[in-house]
Amino acid sequence: MIRLENVHKTFGDNQVLRGFDLEITRGTSMVIIGGSGTGKSVSLKCVLGLITPDSGKILVDGQDVTKADRDAFLARFGMLFQGAALFDSLPVWQNVAFRLLRGSLARPRDEAREIAIEKLRRVGLKADVADRFPAELSGGMQKRVGLARAIAADPEIIFFDEPTTGLDPIMSGVINDLIREIVVEMGATAMTITHDMTSVRAIADNVAMLHGGKIRWTGPVAEMDASGDPYVEQFISGSAEGPIEAVR
Amino acid sequence: MSPVVLLARLGRAVLQTLASTGRISIFAASSFGHMMRPPFYPREFLLALLQVGWLSLPVVGLTAVFTGGALALQIYSGGARFNAEAVVPQIVAIGMVRELGPVLAGLMIAARVTSSIAAEIATMKVTEQIDALVTLSTHPMKYLVAPRVLAALLTVPLLVGVGDIIGIMGGYIVATQNLGFNPAAYLKNTVDFLEWLDIVSSLTKGAAFGVIAALMGCYYGMQSGRGAQGVGRATKSSVEAAAVLILAANFVLTGMFFSL
Questions:
Q1: Could you say which of A89, A119, A154 is where a domain stops?
Q2: Do residues A70 and A184 share a domain?
Q3: Domain encompassing residue A195
Q4: Interface of B with A in 25-54 (CB under 8 A)
């Protein structure tokens, strides 16, 4: 279980998180929605320790993330970045098997390559992609490689940062379906941030609405449309009228 | 402008300089710490050796050969004013080995390697590749910084050594082909005149300049701001800082070796 309690984070004069509280139950898929610049990515990076919160607690299975052994802690996570964040200098298979080629999860090179190719197949890519470089792939293929890298070491927890940004609707659908399938198949806990409502409906078990640095509403995805929360309603309808200012 | 405002600006500038010096010192200490402790990344180190050392050889060699040739012409024409044309081999040798070889190699490395490291790391930062490294349990200081700094520490002295030889050969070619020097006498004068201290100082400078060049590239790359402008600013700042620090370090090292 992942729990964030009263997390605050400020960058200069910009107070991004102002008492962020959220609980994600093991084996469920939580999607955080909210406008651009509301702190969705910051909350996710705080859990991973990429950003240190100013105050508040972040617990994973009851353990404070700031006190956990970093290597063991991160070995439980997989992450798909918004732009895939593939390493340009490495071929695709080495990107996917990055974690399997070094550190505590290191395996023989041949075995790591086999696992990488298997994971590439799992996300719908053929083995001949393995030896290509990220720059030779389309945006959709890069996202798939990023997804393959995120699941390469069979993590317990997977984070998805804007998984469909920049993709056409068909490719977005493919990525959403893949994420849902993989999360269910692996029994992983997932935390996704997005403002794509199609993704929300495809991926989420539960949804949390973030605005003004706080969670305004959280509940099962089935209840989202009837939440009665003005922030959620405005966000779902995409209306300029409502409590969320259209110009931020 | 009132004296108080002037004093405040001066104070702010001094504080900023001290803060930057502190941050760079901590970064340097951290990179050396990571260099000593496992895990090590041999593939990254070998790639850095290739990038910093082998691929810099043409630019360092060309700079040295032209500088050595020009130096021979200058010393010959300058020396002719007081009938000292014969000192061309000695002055070319000492000039190349003690000063021009290491400084020009250092500046070429700053232009070629510092800029490339800063742009690469800054782009990785902007595209979240550095964050991706962390989530993959890989420390960016170990994976990106330590191999590059170690490669520069080891290869730049070699480049300087090769540059010194090529520079002296540039002077030799000009002196023997254009200025009428005897080839054997030129080489003998060169070898006889050089001392071990000249060579040690040259290689030590090379090691120091290499570390400065790689550290500045890594530091400014890691500190890069967002977007293309951030990458551009990081690259520019890294080359400026490396060039100035190389020249300052040259002054200090020259003082240490030859003023005692």
A1: A154
A2: yes
A3: 1-75+159-238
A4: 39, 41, 47
- Would you call A99 and B128 a contact, using CB atoms and an 8 Å cutoff? no
Last residue of a domain, one of A154, A182, A214: A154
- On whether both A121 and A169 belong to a single domain, the answer is no
Q: Decide if B127 and A74 are in contact by the 8 Å CB cutoff.
A: no
Flag if B137 and A70 touch (Cβ within 8 Å).
Answer: yes
pLDDT tens for B132-155 read 999 999 999 999 999 999 999 999
Q: What does the DSSP 8-state code read for residue B146?
A: H
Residues B74 and B175 sit within 8 Å (Cβ to Cβ): no
Distance from CA of A125 to the nearest CA of B (A): 21
| Closest to A176 (Cα-Cα) out of A123, A131, A132, A239 | A123
Q: Can you give the pLDDT of all 248 residues of chain A as single tens digits?
A: 899 999 999 998 899 999 999 999 999 999 999 888 888 989 999 999 889 999 999 999 888 888 888 888 888 899 999 889 999 999 999 999 999 998 777 889 999 999 999 999 988 899 999 999 999 999 889 999 999 999 998 899 999 998 888 788 888 888 898 889 888 888 899 999 998 899 999 999 999 999 988 999 999 999 998 888 888 889 888 888 778 876 55
pLDDT tens digits, A203-242: 999 999 999 889 999 999 999 988 888 888 898 888 887 7
In this prediction the ipTM stands at: 0.88
Residues A26 and A82 in one domain: no
The domain spans of chain B are 41-258
Number of structural domains, chain A?
A: 2
Min Cα separation B55/chain A (Å): 17
Option in B124, B129, B137 nearest A75 (CB):
B137
Contact B135 A79 (CB under 8 A): yes
**Beta bridge pairs of residue A8:** A18, A55
Q: Is B128 on the interface with A (CB under 8 A)?
A: yes
> Which residues lie below 8 Å from residue A41, measured CB to CB, with a gap of 6+?
A82, A161, A162, A193
The strand pairing partners of A193, in sequence order, are A32, A161
User: Beta strand A14-24 with A63-64: parallel, antiparallel or unpaired?
Assistant: unpaired
Residues A146, A107 share a domain:
yes
Smallest CA–CA separation between B124 and chain A, in Å? Answer: 8
A164 and A122 within one domain: no
Any domain includes A225: yes
